[in-house]
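Take a look at my tokenised protein here and describe the backbone shape.
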Amino acid sequence: MFEGRDPIYHQIAEAIRGEVLSGALEEEDQVMSTTQYATTYRINPATAAKAFAQLVDEGVLYKRRGVGMFVAPGAAERLRAERRQAFFAEWLDPVIREARLLGLSITDLTDYLTTHADSTPAATTDTEEGR
């Protein structure tokens, strides 16, 4: 499960965000405890706790004292809004700048997207692939 250069706690947090966005975890669903994560993935419980703390700070999870961690109401929509904003800033703004340099109009971009959007296969996410 844990690959790449990102710290494990980032990977755990991102996996949970992905489950919330995909609907695998819905509002008020309980998530595995830090102990369960540590046992299942053979990691230090403090690593899982750090991921959960990050998600609590972001408003994705909340803690019920003595019960566990749960998906916060509105978490999926908050995550979508944040990712949409990041998508525009990281992907589309550079495309628009480059299009202007090339003399392409908004109509050119819209026509291209309209023509090619349905013919380009959607990328699968790790969550969709069951990873």
In short: Residues 54 and 67 are 19 Å apart (CA to CA).
